[in-house]
Amino acid sequence: MMACMRSDSDRRLREVWARLALVTDPELDEPVTELGFVDKVEVDEAEAVHVHFRLPTYWCAANFAFLMVDDIRKAASVARATRVHVRLDDHMHGEVINQGLAAGADFKATFGEAEGQDLEALRLVFRKKAFASRQHKLIELLLDLGLDDERLAAMTTSELTGMTDLALPFRHARSRYLKLRPIIGGGAPNAFVTESGLPVTAAHFAAHRSRLRSTDLNLASNGALCRGLLAARYDEDDSLDRDHLGQPTLHHFVRRAACQAAPR
Questions:
Q1: DSSP secondary structure letters along 74-140
Q2: Residues in domain MIP18 family-like (predicted)?
Q3: Element at 64 (helix H, strand E)
Q4: Contact assessment for residue 82 and residue 49, using Cβ atoms and an 8 Å cutoff
């Protein structure tokens, strides 16, 4: 009997982790699990789910923190869970956010009208950046397949969806991009559009790709910065300090700078 209960609890725990892997940092467009933001997940004997969440610094913006904690709470609400409790640890607004979410309050109710934050508008801003980043990754893979700017500018969403016999990295990049395409791209038939949903002509496609690249690099750099700060803050894994050639990464320099700046 006890073995069956443990097995059921383990299964539910794996399910929670799988769902949390679908939650992304809205500013970085990376899963919170891969960023190391989810510190601990537990399922107790009463079938309640407990998630401990943390961020790279004590002062990370309250609106971003609230968005992620709320998304985590929704994702962790698995079948037969009697309760879901998400706790933001080691944050200047942690207790306020924890109490607000426990009471079922939204951001304005939690922090007051003085904050003046429209979180859905903010979420859309970062979805557009994620859209650009994902589009850049997908376009680079298509260029590697031999497609040129003229072909990409003319490609329709149906054509992109219908491409078969392609490697897993392409299928993964396409899947992630197409999740945002209906939200950002509107009703245009073109596979690749601007963040405003406008088609891009072949003559302007190279400039379009350059803008996408800048956004993608910005997100990647911020992601490395956050990983480095988190690792330095909690004195954790330094395996990302070197790349596959053994050269120092941005993660290495962030950890080093943070450690040097820390009070002794």
A1: HHT--TT-SEEEEEE-S-TTHHHHHHHHHTT--HHHHH-GGG---HHHHHHHHHHHHHHHHHHHHHH
A2: 15-77
A3: helix 62-75
A4: no
- One-letter identity of residue 77: S
- Please state the rounded mean pLDDT for residues 64-88: 90
Residue 210's Cβ-count burial label (10 Å; 0-12, 13-18, 19+) is: exposed
Residues 169-183: pLDDT tens digits?
999 999 999 999 999
Asked if 33 and 21 count as a contact pair (C-beta separation under 8 A), the reply is yes
Strand partners, 41: 51
* Cα 129 to Cα 28: distance, rounded to the nearest angstrom: 9
- Domain 2-117 has what CATH class? alpha beta
The whole-model pTM stands at: 0.84
Contact between 20 and 72 (Cβ < 8 Å): yes
Residues of the chain with CATH 3.30.300.130: 2-117
Q: Do the strands 38-43 and 48-53 form a parallel or antiparallel pair, or are they unpaired?
A: antiparallel
Q: Give the chain's length.
A: 264
Which uninterrupted H or E stretch holds 261? helix 250-261
